[in-house]
Amino acid sequence: MLPIERRQQLLKRLKEEGALSIAEISRRLQVSEMTVYRDIKPLLEERVIIKTSGGISLAPISKTSVNTCNYCLKELNSRHPVQIITNDLNVEQLCCPHCGLLRYKDIEKDVSQIICRDFLQNSTISAKMAYYLMDTDFNLNCCQPQVLTFESLKQAEQFQKGFGGVVMRFEEAIDEIQKRMNGAAGCSCEK
């Protein structure tokens, strides 16, 4: 197999599996680890892939455009963005809590911090400590199911009284969005 064919196979497997160790790539492609390092060198230089503690993974989409959501690729113009900071200090910008929670679940082991904005106060808060409100009658014309974030349970419940919805914590919100997306890869919103 030619190096270009191995790189194509490698990229296909990274898209399917997220990350691979050098040893696993070597085993699957039946080549030495040194050959794997030579094969991935151009991909690293072009920033198509990145090194991780366990091997390699695809580079975050944000390397290509700083004005688009890393998950759904919508233009970033939302007033309720989410940022994910990875262990290797890459910052991913996401248009809304919906995309932020789905992306977090995809790369959970690589996440150092996830932050969002309180919907009412517009202050930066830890997404893991936030309260999430889903199914409100308040439409922001962003990704569906729409998710609003609040630092305070009291404010989330007050907003809920006026606009409906269900209040959840971080893990519950992730589970609910994944369930509603029916396991589909990617975001169902329109770009």
UniProtKB/TrEMBL annotation:
InterPro entries: DeoR_HTH (IPR001034), N2O_reductase_NosL (IPR008719), WH-like_DNA-bd_sf (IPR036388), WH_DNA-bd_sf (IPR036390). Gene3D superfamilies: Winged helix-like DNA-binding domain superfamily/Winged helix DNA-binding domain. Keywords: Transcription, Transcription regulation. The lineage of its organism: Bacteria, Bacillati, Bacillota, Bacilli, Bacillales. SUPFAM superfamilies: NosL/MerB-like (SSF160387), Winged helix' DNA-binding domain (SSF46785). PROSITE patterns: HTH_DEOR_2. It comes from Bacillus salipaludis. The keyword Transcription regulation applies. Signal peptide: none annotated. Residues 3-58 form the HTH deoR-type domain. This is DeoR family transcriptional regulator.
